[in-house]
Specification:
alpha+beta, D-Maltodextrin-Binding Protein, domain 2, 12 helices, Arc Repressor Mutant, subunit A, two-stranded antiparallel sheet, single chain, 3 domains
């Protein structure tokens, strides 16, 4: 308990230092002396809420987006900002109808406030201990196919285990989530290689990809046995991963075959690719888990089974930070445990 009190004092001291820095050389109400009495702690708590709102405004880019992410209204966010500016005695943002930018004081406040909030969150987590139950809202981006089918069960497990949590489940097939913080996203599940070095990437699994077609595509001809036999067939393209050529590797010999294709249809949806293949429009390369039932029922046939496209990694990604809240840590644990079942055919 003594450790927790000392850590709380340290965080409050950071807040006091921040207020002092922003007030120095200005004729404003003097800042109170450092203490740990209840009035200061209560005042610190109020200011921390105002700091949280200010940081969210800057990261979101405007008051409307900040209000949506905080689950409140734009007038409330505006009022909190004005209260913080009056409390500090400085102007933090210059706003016009279409633009918003930080003042010099606002830039200093933003950097210090972000560090302060991280310290406060870490303090609360340490004080609650390992048995901390997550609460609040977790915002997750997931691919459409995975997000509609395979990931719903582990998501349900997460919500059942932690009843104080709510989740915003956003489906998006674009693997390049440009700005997690501005979008208010906690994490994303991405299929394919992660190229953004600013993200932590936890590999969950790999998705096997196979070559399939409806029986009608073969028109009674023999099932192709070699990758080169596919060249004369009509093709469908999944533009996220292949467009005008495909690379297939022989699982027995390791030989790689490159095929140029002229797709009759291209799409960025795995579901649309599957539907087009079922209609007999052409050959497709898709995730084995999605096509398993169609193969078992004979609606599709696997072509050149010894030749496969490279498996796609499935990663759970989130921005680097010095502290991660319990809501994210617990979600990562559940998704890692569920990963083998998620990609199974």
């Amino acid at each position: 308990m003594q450790f927790g009190r000392l850590q709380a004092q340290a965080v409050v001291a950071q807040l006091v230092d921040l207020l002092y820095i922003l007030r120095m050389k200005r004729s404003v109400t003097p800042i109170p002396a450092r203490s740990t009495n209840s009035s200061l702690l209560q005042g610190a708590g109020d200011r921390i809420e105002l700091m949280q709102t200010f940081v969210r405004i800057v990261e979101a880019g405007n008051l409307s987006a900040a209000a949506a992410q905080l689950g409140t209204t734009q007038p409330t966010v505006s009022r909190r900002l004005q209260t913080l500016e009056r409390s500090l005695g400085v102007r933090l943002l210059n706003r016009s109808t279409h633009t918003m930018r930080l003042t010099a004081d606002g830039e200093r406040c933003f950097e210090r406030a972000r560090d302060l909030l991280t310290s406060w969150a870490a303090f609360e987590s340490d004080l609650r201990g390992v048995d901390e139950e997550p609460d609040g809202i977790l915002r997750v981006v997931a691919p459409h196919a995975f997000g509609q089918e395979r990931l719903i069960k582990p998501l349900a497990d997460y919500l059942k285990r932690y009843p104080r949590m709510n989740v915003e489940w956003l489906l998006h097939d674009d693997s390049a989530i440009q700005d997690f913080i501005a979008a208010g996203i906690d994490c994303a599940i991405q299929v394919g290689e992660v190229t953004d070095s600013a993200l932590v990437a936890i590999k969950l699994a790999e998705v096997p990809r196979i070559v399939v077609a409806a029986p009608s595509v073969l028109a009674g001809a023999a099932v192709p046995e070699h990758a080169t036999d596919l060249a004369g067939l009509p093709w469908l393209a999944l533009r996220t991963y292949y467009r005008n050529e495909v690379l297939l590797r022989n699982s027995l010999t390791g030989k790689v075959q490159r095929l140029a294709i002229s797709p009759r249809m291209g799409t960025d949806s795995l579901y649309a690719l599957r539907s087009a293949a079922l209609q007999g429009l052409g050959v497709a390369i898709g995730s084995a888990w999605l096509l398993a039932d169609d193969l078992a029922a004979g609606r599709l046939v696997q072509l050149v089974p010894q030749w496969q496209a490279a498996s796609l990694p499935v990663n759970l990604v989130y921005p680097y930070a010095s502290f991660y809240p319990a809501r994210l840590r617990c979600f990562v644990e559940i998704m890692r445990a569920a990963a083998p079942a998620v990609v199974a055919g």
